[in-house]
Every structure is written in structure tokens, then in C-alpha cells.
Design a protein that fits this description.
two-stranded antiparallel sheet, 2 helices, 12% helix, binds iron/sulfur cluster
Length: 83
């Protein structure tokens, strides 16, 4: 983040955030899966279907979501094949 008080704030994008899951591949419903933003969450992995993600467009409307965390870099093809 930029520490200068006069500099323009850095905008964050949900598409670059590790908490966004996209339907149908990553989740049943597209949305924000940060625990603080979910209206209904389950601890058990088997109950994933019952989870309701937060509306990422509403939460991050101004691009200043404080819970943003950048996605980890993608593993190389070699790492994905052998791990
Ligand atoms: S709303 Fe915030 S935490 Fe959720 S996906 Fe967007 S930037 Fe990430």
C-alpha cells in the first residue's frame, strides 16, 4: 500500500483476490468467500453447498476492500504435473 497521505489510494480488484471464487468451477455461486463477508458459512467441507458467499461487487464497489489479499502466484506447469 501507498503510505503517502497525498497519493491516490490503490484500487483493488476482486478478480485478483484470493477470496473470490467463480461458478461453476470453484463454487456453486460466484462471490466473496472471506469469512467476514459471508452471510452463511460452514466449517465442514462436506457442507460447502450450503455456503452463501458475499456480494463482492457491492462490498468492493469503490475498490477499497480492506480484506483484499492477492492470489498466490500460479505454480509452473512442471510443479502442477508433479505435485
Ligand atoms: S470483496 Fe474484498 S475480500 Fe472479497 S473478493 Fe473482493 S477484494 Fe477480495
Amino acid at each position: 500500500m501507498n503510505s503517502s497521505p497525498t497519493a491516490a489510494p490503490v484500487k483493488v480488484s476482486c478478480s485478483q483476490c484470493k477470496w473470490l471464487r467463480v461458478a461453476p468451477w470453484q463454487a456453486r455461486i460466484t462471490g466473496c468467500f472471506h469469512p467476514d463477508h459471508m452471510p452463511a458459512k460452514q466449517k465442514e467441507r462436506s457442507l460447502d453447498e450450503q455456503q452463501i458467499p458475499g456480494d463482492h461487487r457491492a462490498i468492493n464497489r469503490r475498490g477499497d476492500c480492506p480484506k483484499y489479499e492477492a492470489k498466490p502466484p500460479r505454480a509452473s506447469l512442471w510443479q502442477r504435473l508433479w505435485n
